[in-house]
Structures are given as structure tokens and as C-alpha cells.
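Sample A.
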Amino acid sequence: MTRRVALLVSLAAAVTLATPPAITQAGESGTAAQDGPLTPMGAERAGNKDGTIPAWSGKWLGAPPGIEVKANGRYPDPYADEKPLFVITAENMATYSNRLTDGEIALFKRYPATFQMAVYPSHRDFRYDESVYKDIATYAPDTQMTSDGNGLSNAPPQVPYPKPQTGLQLLWNLRMSSSIGTESATYDQAVVYPNGDTAWGRVKYDIYSPREVGKYDVKNALNNKGFFREFVELPLNERGTGNVGYEILDHSGSDTRRTWTYNPGTRRVRQAPEFGFDQPQGPGGFRTVDDDRLFNGSGSRYDWKIVGKAERYVPYDNYRLMDPSIKYDDLLGKGHPNPKYMRYELHRVWVLEATLKPGSRHQYAKRVLYLDEDTWIPVAADNYDARGQLWRTNQQATVYAFDAKRFYTTDAFYHDLTSGAYMADRLTNRNSAPLLNNSPQFDEAYFSPDSIRSAGN
């Protein structure tokens, strides 16, 4: 049986077992059913048949008992004493291939001597605060999608479709999966080439999601925007370049993002039309703008479909990656990050496929995203070129942020399977810990074109 046929068979079985009954309207959330077989976020409450995925407990809100968040803002690993259940290598990969993504299999084949996956016990212990669940129950039944699929109205701050029935509904769950109200951080970036040379980048990054701050009011127009502001610190030839703007939630049309760019050479701010999609970003333009956090922004250039649900070994509970004692020279090996710092767990994921629309342009002709069922966060992505060949495979680490009481995306790794280079993004080991839901009081003015001009000068 080919890998493609095996994947479809396994996914078809997963759909039969796991896909909720059809809903009668696009925004119906089925919140009553979530008291039974589904969690308040829309995940399956039960574990899997063989017990390798546990039932959702949601027993911890914030830091677990005995865990104290340190003054430097780092999150102690609540599972630090655990040992791997087993380690997947190129030699034993076939034993576990039915639970690997195509990208993971490609990494084993590309780096058979060095790439490994240490698989640890799976956990589903943390929950969001009750306000998140209340907002989903209150607003999700009335969520309306624009006819072109690029906007929402009457949507909750998180998870507009707890029981997604279409690819666009699942995409919107991904787009709103962060649940972080404010984020202020300095992220290091590194492109590691096959010979071991490294190109560095560093970005000062602020985001502000008013709908996640304070009591949510669906009638407040400010809640229909998500703001961002970034300044480049490295490489030096781009130092001082800045972008500021916002994403529009309730909007019809593909241009859902408004962006202004500050050029330190001319000291001018200009609006940047269509800042997103496959514009190069990061050191050497290694990844695309919409690769950030594996996917972000408008999905208007693709047709989206739900392939199904599946069990996959994916990055999870990756607290160790944020340890400030880990040096980048040790973390960033040739071909891929040092496997001893990565943690994988078995989780159920939604498999979301995007195919480039006829007449649309993008570097990626097809994308396959794997969304964690408990958070809707994408934890892995496979991107294909115009010939249908797997080109780039990406992985995203996550932790539960005890202070923010939210799941949070940390390091992301973008692997170019053709060249053998990869990019590590959102590294914080030698910087201050990110401030989540605890940033200075952001407002709309902080993210205006005038503000970035003043900051640049």
C-alpha cells in the first residue's frame, strides 16, 4: 500500500470515528453536546482506543501545583522528570510511519544518521479560563462568514467553529487559535545552511488583540481588528526597518491586512499593499510572510478542505526549548535542531489541505496543515511546489503559558528539503522572556503609521 493510500485510509477511518454530525447552519456550535463527548473547545474528550492518547482532563488552570513561575518569566517544565517512551529513528521509522506526517518521514530520509524523534507520554492537562468557554458558547452559534470566506461577524474571540464542517471553518479556527491578548517579545531568527554557516535575524515584535483583552463585546468595532508592530534589529543592513498595521476580522475581500512600512534610509512611512502571502521574510527571505506560525493572514488564494482527523506524533509541551541555559550553538545543528531538545507527543490533529486556486499566485501550490484538536494551533505543515513535490516541512513548538492561561506558540522550524537549509524562528533563549497578556497598555495609536515613524526616528 502506498503512503498516500495508507494516509487516506487512516484518515477515512478517523473521520468515521471522530467527525461530529453535520450541523444545520455555518455557525452552530453544538455547545450542549460539548458537555458530553466534546470539550468546550470542540475536541474529543475521550482518549484513543489503545490509551496512548489520554482523555482530556483540563485539571490545571494556570501553574500546576508545586510549579512556580520564576522571576525571569520562564515557565518551568511540569513534565521535566519524564523519560521518552521510545525514540524514532530512520532504522525503525517504518514501525511508526502510520503516525508520522509526510514531512517527518522526509526528514528521516534526508538525514538518516542524525534526525530522531523522542516520543514522550501525551498530556491533555491544561484548560483555558472560563471566560473563553463562555464566549464560545455565547457567540459561536451566531457566527456568520462572508460569502467570499474572508471575513466573520458575530464571532467569539476564539474558535468560531467548535464543530467545523468545511475547510474555511477549520481555517478560521486556526487563524483565531492564539488567544493571546498582548504579546511583547524580541525573537531571534537563524538560517542554518548545510555547511553549518548561520545567517542571523532579530525582530522586536508587539501584537495587540483587543477582543482578547477585558470583557468581550461583539458590538465594539475595535474587536474586529488585530494589531501588529515589528522592528528589525538584525541583520544590520535592515536594522530599523519597521512594519505596523492590523488585520481586519469583519471584512469582505482578500486584502484583509493594512500595513505601513518604515524605511530608515529615507525615514519615510509608506503603505505596503498586500503585505502577506508569499512575500519573503526572515534572514535571506527564507520563509514567506504567511508562513509565520505556520500559517497566518488571508487564505483567499487557496481552496481549503478538511482531509480528516488523524493521530500524529507532533511537537508538544516544548518547555525545554525556551531554557535560557541552552546555547544556540548547541541547539542549532546541521540539517535540523538538536533532537535532544525536542519533545514529541501523540495527539489527534485535524488535517487541513489548501490547493492553490486557478489564476492565483503563490510559491506553494499545496499546503497541508496539522492542527492540534485541543487548541486549533497548527503544529506541523507540509508545503508543496508547483510540480507536486514536498518542498518545505515545518514544525511549531507549543507550551501552556501559566501566567496567560493560554497555549502559546514558541520556536518554529522551517526545513527546505531541497537545499538542506532550515530556519529557526521565534527563539528567545538569549533574550528576555516574552510578555504575554502583561504588556504595557497597548492602544490603537501605538500601532499607527505615525507611531512607527516616531519610533524609527
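Sample B, a different protein:
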Amino acid sequence: MVKLYKPTSPGRRDGSVIEYKTKLTSTKNNPRKSLVKGKRSTGGRNSQGRITTHYRGAGNKRKYREIDFKYDKKDVPAKVESVEYDPNRSAFIALVCYADGERRYIVATRKMQAGDTFVVSETAKPKSGNRLPLAKIPVGTFVYNVELKPNAGSRLVRSAGNYAEVIAQDAGFTTLKMPSTEIRKVISTAWASIGEVSNEEHRLVTIGKAGRARKMGLRPKTRGSARNAVDHPHGGGEGRSPRGHRRQRTKQGRPTGKGQKTRSPKKYSNKFIVQKRKPGKLMRNRRK
């Protein structure tokens, strides 16, 4: 459930939070020490110290939970011990214990609870939480944690509330309808988990005030038109000047926003795309 506060102050008036006590096993559980490591904030800088992602920095310190995206422990049943919060991703995570005693973190499915079981196997039933090759998954099933190459680890559909739908099986490829409404083919020997990603209400949360965004590591964004011409393609000019060119651009000069296409026309994976994504309202209202 999303909790709305009483408007006791301007910041409280529009802010909302998820009631974690109704979603998680316990809100006071510390992460398992053997599955946690330190994480340094990059501030959006690369290994050369140059800013490659703008408007990031500071924020609260976080510990990184090591998530199992490869699921390489096959044919060993596992039991969910707890569902926990992870500050590094929008979805919840689950601490699972395999039958041989090993514990790992995985991305939790919707409605996953302590005591639930699942298995990673080619002969597993297509029920929520189980993981099996795409070729063994029936048409119409919702999947997440989808691989692009067999046993290379999950790459697609990992954020809160997302799922892809299996819509066809043909000639060694599985056709998936992605959360972006794009329809693409994935090799059928790649693996995927059954179900939907947890924390589906994440998209309904309103940050509410600037201070909360700063604690999340988000810094203020400056409009391109408010900058100097040397700093941004939209900058410069006297007063409130128009941008001077038809297409909206990023700081690096690449087209962006307003439904403009940014995908490379020669990208290697273009041959796997059956239908391009539908921008704008059609994509935002996919669940309706």
C-alpha cells in the first residue's frame, strides 16, 4: 500500500511512501553479512574521473547486496527465508536457502513470502518463482529475470512491477512482449523466471520534496536553455531564446525526448526486434 501523509508541511503535502511493514518479512532485519559488501558512490563519474551521468552525487551510504542473477544452482529446491528491502534497486529481494544449505539473495516475485519454495530446473512446473528455459514456458505466461544468452545471467525485466509476456514459440526463438511494449525475439535456450517482479506500487510513489531526492543521491537538474551556449546546445541567446534548431538535444548533442528515435540504426540486436516500442501514453498505460 502507498501511504499518503497528512499535509502538516509543504513537503509532507505531496509526498508518499510504501508501507514496507505490509510487504516485508521485517523492516528491522539487517542484511546477511556474508552476502554484503561495501559500495562507493561514483557521483556519476567514470574511471577517469569525468562525469558521464549528470545530476548524481552525495546521498545516504548504501551497502551492496550480492544478488544471484545467474541462478546456476540447478535442480536444487530452495526455500524463501525472508523478503527484504534493497536500497540499490526498486524491487524487493528475498533471502533463500537451498536444500544443500547455501544461502543467496534473489529478486523477489510479486506476493512472495517467507516459506515459499521454488526450483531452477528444466523439468520445473511453470509456477510463480520457478525458473526454466524459455522453450519450456507456455504462451501467455508472465516472466522476469530474462537472459539474452543461455547461462549468462539475467539482463531483462528486473525492476519493480515489471514483467514480459511470452506470446510465441517459433524456430528456436521465443517472442516476448517487453514492459516497454517492444516485441522481440530471444533464443529459446535462455532461461527466465516465472511471475512478476515485486513492489509493483513503486511507480505510484511521489518523492514530495527536494531533500528526500538529495538523500537518494539525486542532484538538481538545470535546464539546458538556462545555460551558456558553450555548456549546452539549447543555451545562449538574449533573454528567453528558442533553442535554435528543430530537434531537442542532450548536452552531448544527441536527439532526445518528444518521441524522437535515439536507437542506433545499425545496432546488432535490431534483427531480433519484431515490433518497436510505442512511445508516450501507450507505453505508460500498458496495464490499463
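Observation for Sample B: The CA atoms of residues 130 and 234 lie 50 Å apart.
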